[in-house]
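User: NADH dehydrogenase, Methanoculleus taiwanensis:
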Amino acid sequence: MSDDAKKKMTPYTIPIGPTHPALKEPVMFTFEMNGEQILKADFAPGQTHRGIEWMGMRRNPVQIVHLTDRICGICGVSHSLAFARAVEQIMEIEVPERADYIRAIIAEFERIQSHLLWAGVAAHELGFDTLLHLTWRVRERAMDTIELLTGNRVNYGIIQVGGVRRDFTPDLYPAIEECLQYYSDLKSTLLKVFLEDKTIHMRCRDCGVLTYEDALKLCTVGPTARASGVNMDVRVDYPFAAYGDLAIEPILPDAHMGETRGDVFDRIVVRLLEVEQSIDIVRQCLDRMPAGEIVWEAKVAKILNQFKKAHGEALGRHEAPRGEVLHYVRMDGKEHPTAWKVKASSYSNLMSWIPMLEGEQIADIPIIVASVDPCLSCTDRVAVVRNGDRGVMTKEDLHRLSVAKTRRLMA
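Assistant: Predicted structure for NADH dehydrogenase:
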């Protein structure tokens, strides 16, 4: 064989990222290719450090709750709820029952809009932009209802340590039910356009497979795990808020398709059926909504005083749209936490990209990467390590560097 022929057969490497049209957020992929087939895949996150935990360590929990809303623009209330639950466990706060139901309702509306946003992204990655626009148009109804209930379309600001900041009064119920009925009527249409379309079936069936065994070994969570047949859901396994009072079962693909293959198609099935499940959960909450207070303590000054008496550590958990989100908090008798660590859902799911991608075609990379609904801005954390030395930059340091950079640019 000639040297030229050997060179043509040699596997070659393709870098994709950290910014690329196929990626919605920065992440660096490296693929070892043989022709169009992926032999090996690797990735390097860490491109979107924002230092939110650093900022939180200099605030009290009442302020941090609003910061947690900004960890993610899609599932902000999931982070707020998980953080608030951790602080409430340390302080042994009993959240009013009505507040727990309101928390569950807004969390399910967030799941509806998040899954519909993901469905539109998936359609786009498949080159089906008509379906992208349809999905994102119908998603607006959930966003409008969230705005009606909380006053905001993004960063709802409704969670408070010990309860919620707004009540869902009975005069809002007709608008909520109207929104739920809108999505109930759309169910058959969405299932038909996604699951009966020949192109989607050909592109997604048996593509990006994550086996049940790999899903367990890699500790995947949420729809990514359930699409591989893993029967897990924090709302069912460790009930919180109002979920313990409700009838909920984890959504698995075999319930609708008769089998589980763990491929991209099954991830579509799980998320579409979870939209229907969220509609049912909100209706259950409205039917059982108890009367009463919505906060443990109305006076913020009294809550702040209680923080100074709090000692201990706790984990707050929530089943976010992408899966389980964890917030670890430790309080040592100060107004601000001694430690606060966030583990977003995507952190648990990113490693599943490797078995999903290896052996597949280069053209399938965008839809496989998108199929776990990754959120890198949720996941990336700050760490300053230079020549083996660890350090933390203060606000003054960052301001000084910012001013110096501006002056260099203007010189």
